Structures are given as C-alpha cells and as structure tokens.
Amino acid sequence: MTALLVCTALGIEARAVRHGLPSGDALVLRTGMGPERAARAAARLPSADALAVAGFGGAVREDLRAGDVLVATEVRFGERALPCPWTPFLAAELARHGLPVRTGPLVTCDHVVTGAERGLLAERGALAVDMETWPLAEAADGLPFAALRVIADTADVRSPWAVPAYGVVAYRVLRRIGPALARWAAHASGADHPTDDDHTMDDDHATGADHSMDTGRATGAGRRTGPEADDGSVSREERPFPSSREG
Question: What's this model's pTM, rounded to 2 decimal places?
Fold first, then answer.
C-alpha cells in the first residue's frame, strides 16, 4: 500500500509535485481536467494511507497573490461541503518550509469561473476555485485527506501578459510542497484524528512514480492553464454552507 497518494490534473503539476517529494513510498497520479474525469479517477484510486489533491488553483479574492498556497479548510461543490480537519498541521508544515500559506474554503466548479461569479464565491467565504478536488475528497472515505492549491490565476489580473509569469511563480512553489506533504502523511496516517498537540494556524492566515490518466485542465478561475485534455479520467459528514445573506 502506498503511504501517500497525491492526485493532480496536469502532467506539469505531477512533475512539480513529484520533484519535491522525498524518496519513499509516495505516488503521484494524474486524473485529468474537470470533475467528470476526477470522478472517474476517484472510482479506481489505488490504496493509500493518506490522500492529497495538489496543483494550481484560481483565486476568487484579490488579496491572494500568484504563488500563495491555499490549504483548504473545506471543499465545496454546489451547496455541499466537506471539512478538511488536517489543514492546521499541513499549513504549519508548509509555513515551516518558508511557503506563503493561506487557509480557507476551496470551491470545485464544473466550469471556468470569471468576472462577477468570482465575487459571488468570495462573498460566501471562498478563497479559491478549482475543477477536480470535490470528487476526490468524497473518495477519501475516511482516509486522512488534504487539498492544496498554489494560486496561478489571480482575481485582479489586468493584463494577459501577466498570466505566463504567474504560472512560472506557481510552478516553482509547487515544486517545494513535497517535504511538507510527506511529513503530513506520515503524521496523519499514524494517528486516529488531529489532536490538540497538532500544529495550529488560523483560518485565512498568511505566512511568510507519475501515472498518466489524462492531461490538461483549467484552474477553474479565469482562463485555461494547459491544453485540452484527451478523454480518460469520506466518511465525513457533508453540510450545507450559508450564503452571505444567511449570515
């Protein structure tokens, strides 16, 4: 059984994550772009002690910068949400490695989010958006689970010339997350649940073998970050989350 399984959508994400993982029992799996491909991949995941989803993401709030690392406190899809209880430990590990960490809700969408829709998601408390995490979060089925997105597409982009530069920044950061992921997986798989002794970090806090299934994806916000893909692709209580009008 693999100690740590990391799912990414793009081949470039898989290469970046794999580069940073220390040698050992870890597997990086490409799922392909979008929730449908992610769901197909989720139905046949190999056994692992811990599951993480990692890659690029799109910001819906203007205070997130390219290269910021969002560790999801919960994953949302429509009106449903799944909590990510291991967020404080992983966020603290990433910060210990000098990465700019944010924590908060991550939204999975089945389309590219632009314009006013970003603002609506931000009003409901979301920090970023992607297109794959939700089906994989559901498939965790009681395993230690984490969702991590490096911001490559910011909400305040004014010039298309900024996009490639932001992608380079995000890629360099993604190459550095491996040691923290491995440390989290080793800790989480050896414990029943997070304890008071685990690292803590406040919500929305800022601090200083690749298996091919599909390629291509979008971050879910703004614009495509890779080529079109070819076809292929927890026992945690779901809860509805309030809209901004519900307080």
Answer: 0.78
